[in-house]
Amino acid sequence: MSRLLLALLALPALAVAAPPEVSLMIKDHRFQPEEVRVPAGQKVKLVIQNQDATPEEFESHELNREKVIPGGATANVFIGPLPAGKYPFFGEFNDKTARGVVIAE
Asked: pLDDT tens across 68-85, in order?
């Protein structure tokens, strides 16, 4: 085996950078915070914790995402990479109160 190949095998595996995480909470049938800022042009992991006893759905037509989050559960939703702009989302089960926006900048 060549020295170069041996040296390459000895290197640790290259780590792939994890996407940035943004926390979002559902409490009292509202998203908190209602405005989430994310970096434009990057994939982002939304970590959504539902503190209500009832399920809620994270839904966004603009983000092309739909995820039901049971009461007391946490779910991950990946979005992006997004061009700069505003992307509204809502909770379909409580759409009058559960509203928010992702702002990519």
From this structure: 999 999 999 999 999 999
Domains of the chain: 16-104 (2.60.40.420)
Q: State the chain's mean pLDDT as an integer.
A: 91
Structure token pair of residue 62: 């603009």
pTM, whole model, 2 decimals? 0.82
How far apart (Å, rounded) are the C-alpha atoms in residues 1 and 8? 11
- One-letter amino acid at 102 equals V
Both tokens of 23, joined, read 């926390």
Q: Which helix (H) or strand (E) holds 93?
A: none
DSSP 20-85: PEEEEEEETTEEESSEEEE-TTS-EEEEEEE-SSS-EEEEETTTTEEEEE-TT-EEEEEE----SE
